[in-house]
Amino acid sequence: MPDSYPREHIEDLVDDNLEWSQLHNMMSDFKDADRFQQVRDVLQERVDWDDPIIIPYAEHLYVVAKSEDRWVIKCDCGHEFCEHDENWKADALINVRDSEEEYLEIYPEDMHPHPEYMELREFFCPGCKTLLEVTNVMPGYPLIHEFEPDIETFYNDWIDEPIPTPETA
Amino acid sequence: MSSEHESGESFPHMRREQERVREKKQQGDGVGWDGKTLREQLEELEAKTEETDHYAGFERLEFKSEEPIEYEQMFAQLRGDLVTARETSKEVAATPIVEQEGELCYGLFTPEGDSIAVSTGIIVHIHTMSEAIKYMINHDYEESPGIEPGDIFVNNDPHVGDVHPCDIMTLIPIFHEGELVAWAGGVTHVIDTGAIGPGSMNVSQASRFGDGAQYTARKIGEDLEIYNSWKNDFPDKTRTPDFLKLDEKTRMTGCLMIRDAVFDIIDEYGVEKFKQLSREAVEDGRRGFGNRIRKTMLPGTYRGASFVDALYEGQGNLTREYANENHIMHAPSELHVREDGSFQVSFEGANKWGWHPYNCTPAAIQGGIWVMLTQTVIPNANVNDGAYYACDFHLPVGSWANTQNTETAHAYAWHFLVSAWAPLWQHLSRGYYARGFWEEINAGNANTSNWLQGGGIDQFDKLHAVNSFESACEGVGARYVEDGEPHAAAIWNPEGDMGDAEVWEMTEPLPFLGRAVKPNTGGAGRKAGGAGFESMRTVKDVSRWLLYEMGNGYMTSDGGLFGGYPAASGYILNAQDTDLKERFENGEEYPQHDLDPESGEFESKIDGEITRRPEGISTPKEFDDYDMYLNYLRGGSGLGDPLERDPEDVLSDIHDGYVLPRHAKDAYAVVVNKISDEAKHNSAVQGEWTVDEEATEELREERMEERAEKAQPVSEWYEQQRERIQNEEDLIDDVKKTYESSMRMSAQFEEFYLDFWDLPEDFAYSLSEKAERSLENRFKSGTKQKWKNPTTSHETWLGVGRDDEPEVPYTWTAERSIRDLPTPEASFGDNIAGTATDDD
Q1: Most A-contacting residue of B428, B641, B644 (CB-CB within 10 A), to test interface
Q2: Which InterPro entries match (chain A) (predicted)?
């Protein structure tokens, strides 16, 4: 097990360029200690903006530092959603698949949910229109706020590093 | 088995131990360590654990840190012995379920019932067996019926420690110098439990009384000899006595191998080392879990919700009129990863249990989650109840997740359990994503159905039951870095496969007409969910034969991740009174598949009474020779925006039979052109296609524009939905009943729901008279608890009422009100809909 993978290896992970045998080894090995920092740094290089990434939040989404005490959820296209502890979906675009016709675009007949029992909510980034999340819920269900990271505990206690700020970036 | 050795001496070690235990009892001592009773020993362990936050008060792992090589040698030897016990003993079994699919596992437990080390296999039961041992200790089995050297116990009662009654466990205590030093336990999934319908998990019963025989932690033998009363009892309570007898011999074989292995370890290292190891291994497992979490996830709160349908309205052969109703399982799932890496898992808001066999007990939920964690968080040999000690569970009493009512049915608890797990995979994946461990991310799993089950008089003119474990081979959810594995495994049996068709045909009078990958079963995504598969079966040489289906139909339980779509849901396809025999005789075509349900191909190749409907569950119905049955095994969910999938991968999907050509365009915006009708690739699909790159690029651009046109700001949608809910428009009774059930179960969920939609405090959905009666009937039924005298650690399962504060914090909140947002234009207007402007 490497304590740390070479940067090129992490770039290949981020860019989806690793062979299955390499991925399998990564799964089987003990986990490398600096993965978070390496992935964060590679992602920071990939985005077209300068706000320091505090954490990768979900595919295409990041928590970034706007100031020392203001963190927001931001898409890699540059669209900013909301404060880091709020539900970005409330600021998204939504399309709901709740008819037979709309289901048949994705699934064959009889192999999709019954529209009266379940709808598919597709959430898009208002900036780049990327499909960021699909949730399958009963009609009438509230929006689900899936992830509230405890960033302070993570940085202060788990990895013992200062939380990035625009000044330190 | 015989108790006589070749020497003529009966199990000399056991006899010596029995003598020592008798002496201790005469002195008033218990069989625990240092003369304690087992209950005293368990209470002391719980108190020390509570007091120190370390298992059994082991704040320091002295043995492991001072003699690490010897510690690892001992642990590896034990682990190896458990795996050997499993691999050897499964050859004793005759059912393909155990012998082929490996539906068995073994564990070695502390005297108090905590697992020290486990075999491979269906290790959900490592924790269910733990519960069964604790039940015996909690209910003073040491006094009656006694726990002594040579005793044999059996359990399959879900309220004691099991998922469902068809998983039967054998437990034997292991003694050294008059002390109980460990327990050996083994579980097999049996083929029939004597429920009201044939098969191991019948679906037509309303309550426990149709679930099949349940044995509550029963002593079935002593002197390592099974009582005649047991030998003459259980075989008549099943339709498959010979299979169950061999399953029992399987479990006994494994348990005795483990017992001998423990004796060898004690001989080699001494009993004190063994005791020390058994304590330290659990504490090490607990710490290992926390360390792994701290290394791979993020602290914080993760939430999700899953649903699955159980439709009974209009089904035949139900045991009670009041069971004739539809159910939806609602599983709100909340995970707190605390500072120390430990877990708090809550199902607050889960709806009421029902008159169906999909209810769960705490043992089922805890064991179930635990087996999932072993496949991702702790994928190594260091698996034991330490992980359980690193997790707190909140399972609302009276919900489907913790009925605390011995009247409820549990035959296929997995239907709800597997579905309720779905968000937990995603919680972990969100943590792995944030931390950069992308190789560990998994969108979810498959709903592990269909379950082909039934029985009657088989091809050998014997009463028989079947339970096809082809379902141990479903598609797996997409990974972040790869597509989901197609037709690969089941969450509850990570080593399972579909089994050999020829072997299934030996034990099932259901010849295979075809077996193939099933297209569009895996969820669409940048990485696609693994595809499921299907088997077309017919029926041959039977009489009074029943078959039924079991799975999801109106709902898909496994959601996609990061923009991936959920896996497909199920449907039922049967044909009865067919002309299949004539087609065989005349050498005519007959259906081997149902790859595309819309194609009409199945119907074009068979005459008969065809049933095709989008539900997943049917109650037992009669089938005769040459009838047909589609066994459709589900796929996994997708990950990422499907428009980001490489078009060449979509082309491969078509040729591999994973995606129907028309869905390349609809789901992936990939334009393909057929270039050959004749070519055949790696699937049952005929033809060859090629990607039109230019058209694909154009189509994808158009699709992005369509998204912008069609989608609306969430704030607008919210207002429409709020109005819909207030006016109860287009909301069916089954959905409203589910919300009402959850709100009546949970003050916290009710507050969240009303708050989120800004509804008045007295808001309630109006229900049909039937739905209202059903809820009243179940809410009034109260609890009938199985654990009468629990020690502290099990008290948390009991007595948590609707208005109590959950022991795991409930943090679902609507505090960020969408109504307070600026106008839709401000958030979503043209000025920000273009490229990134932040640094311009």
Answers
A1: B641
A2: Aceto_COase_bsu/gsu (IPR016750)
- Classify B84 in phi/psi space as left (phi over 0), alpha (psi -120 to 50) or beta: alpha
With beta carbons less than 8 A apart as the criterion, state whether B112 and B385 touch: no
When scoring A118, A152, A159 by the number of chain B Cβ atoms within 10 A, the one with the most, hence best to mutate, is A118
Residue whose entry in the numeric block shows the structure tokens 């002496």? B23
Region label for A69, one of left (φ > 0), alpha (ψ between -120 and 50) or beta (otherwise): alpha
The pLDDT tens digits of the residues spanning A99-149 come to 999 999 999 999 999 999 999 999 999 999 999 999 999 999 999 999 999
Phi, psi of B404 (to 5 degrees): 45, 40
Cα-flanking dihedrals φ and ψ of residue B386, to 5°? -55, -40
**B376 Cβ neighbours under 8 A, 6+ residues apart:** B425, B428, B440, B442
Overall average pLDDT of the A78-86 stretch: 96
Helices (H), chain A: 7-14, 20-28, 35-46, 100-103, 151-153
The residue to which tokens 């900013």 are assigned: A80
Instruction: Say which residue the tokens 């073994």 belong to.
Output: B106
B375 touches chain A (CB under 8 A): no
Task: List the domain boundaries for chain A.
Answer: 1-46
By residue count, chain B amounts to 840
C-alpha distances out from residue B645 to B322, B688, B708, Å: 48, 20, 20
Residues 6+ apart with CB under 8 A from B408: B207, B208, B353, B359
Q: Are B452 and B470 in contact (CB under 8 A)?
A: yes
A162–chain B nearest CA distance, Å: 16
Picking from A114, A130, A135, the nearest residue to B554 by CB comes out as: A114
The ipTM (two decimal places) reads: 0.99
* CA distances to A113, B100, B718, B743 from B724, in Å: 21, 52, 10, 18
Please say whether the beta carbons of B276 and B63 come within 8 A: yes
Which residues share a beta bridge with A94? A123, B712
Backbone φ and ψ of B94, nearest 5°: -110, -15
pLDDT in tens, B351-381: 999 999 999 999 999 888 778 888 888 887 7
B218 and B169 Cβ atoms separated by less than 8 Å: no
Instruction: State which residue of chain B sits closest to A81, comparing Cα positions.
Output: B827
- Cα Dmax for chain B: 93
Asked if B112 contacts B137 with a C-beta cutoff of 8 angstroms, the reply is: yes
Q: Which residue in B516, B528, B515 sits closest to B567, CA to CA?
A: B528
CA pair distance B423, B5, nearest whole angstrom: 54
Six token digits for residue B675: 């270039």
Written as six digits, the tokens of B208 are: 């426990």
- The owner of tokens 């458990």 is B82
**Average pLDDT rounded to a whole number, residues B607-629:** 97
Q: Which residues of B23-36 are buried (b: 16+ CB within 10 A; e: fewer)?
A: ebeeeebbbbbeeb
